[in-house]
Amino acid sequence: MARVFVTGGAGYIGSHAVKLLGEKGFEVAVFDNLSTGNSSSVLYGMLIKGDILDYETLKKAMMDFKPDAVMHFAAKIIVPESVEKPLLYYENNTAGAINVLKAMRETGVKNFIFSSTAAVYGQPEKMPIKEDFPLSPINPYGRSKAFVETILKDLSFAGDFSYVSLRYFNVAGADPEGKIGETKKDATHLITMCVRTACGKRDKLFVFGTDYPTKDGTCIRDYIHVMDLAEAHIKALDYLLEGGKSEILNCGYGRGFSVLEVVNEAKKVTGIDFPVEYRERRPGDPARLVADAEKIKRVLNWVPKYDDLSFIIKTAFEWEKKLGSQS
After folding, report:
1. Which one of the listed residues 12, 141, 239, 253 is annotated catalytic?
2. Burial 62-99 (b: 16+ CB within 10 A, else e)
3. Residue 141 falls in the annotated catalytic set
4. d(CA 112, CA 110)
5. CATH of 3-172+224-251, one of 3.90.550.10, 1.10.1200.10, 3.20.10.10, 3.40.50.720
6. Overall CATH class of domain 190-221+254-290+306-326
7. Which of 58, 91, 149, 186 has most Cβ atoms within 10 angstroms of its Cβ?
8. Model confidence at 324, in pLDDT bands (50, 70, 90)?
9. How far separated are the first and last CA of the chain, in Å rounded?
10. Under a CB-based contact definition with an 8 Å cutoff, are residues 284 and 150 in contact?
11. Using one digit for the tens of pLDDT, what is the confidence trace for 284-320?
């Protein structure tokens, strides 16, 4: 089986991809500095502690493992933080990705799967969002990822390098088997915060902005279950290993839910009427992001299994309850 080098594989999304890789028989090396990841979330392969900004350690780890492909998850992802600390995001997300790509070149690895984001689109005028829409990110997080996509296009054009860039929409939920889930204490995902509030781990849930031009004034997002996203990475890997050409693909379901709809569904699923406080908008948040997901279904033959908001919330809630019982 192919060998896959996974940066950020101890983190939330990366660990779910590693679980699937291991279950499908791939040989895996996880490279993670454990700043937000958790070593106990790495269920398969070897874990190498290291930072993508430490080029020599990164290059040595890749050379020792000799992968057939790299999945690059390691990144900072908090939009408001990126507005406050843009250099941190350009250094980690853009310069860090360049380090990974340089190490691949030194090692002769030609297949790359990149964690991109819907934030590269900014605030599109039309919905749902197609991959060929112009990129116009409105925050440093989105720009840091858009810069990497430009580099990937140039590398692919230069030859002997292929990539799939997966533009994530809002990732949520946990492994339905309950083995792994979100472990980051300061996670900012809405569904994670809903279930943590329901479990009593937070005093209240904050909703940022009620005056957006949407049906109830709150932001609308396309929520995708983390295991469906992990499956998209496996499909992208198979596609590249079989000689597929470079592609950029949206990862979402093509349906949007407002923040209030998610909050109300979370109260229903958990059976707990947890407290909610409404606050001003956060900087850098677009009003509406919904994917057109037809291309990924066509190119990768990706078929989502968990396209159900209640199920997504349920898996997140079960995981939080399990975490609570272990603490």
Report:
1. 141
2. beebebbbbbbbbbbbbbebbbeeeeebbebbbbbbeb
3. yes
4. 7
5. 3.40.50.720
6. alpha beta
7. 58
8. confident
9. 37
10. no
11. 788 999 999 999 999 999 999 999 999 999 999 999 9
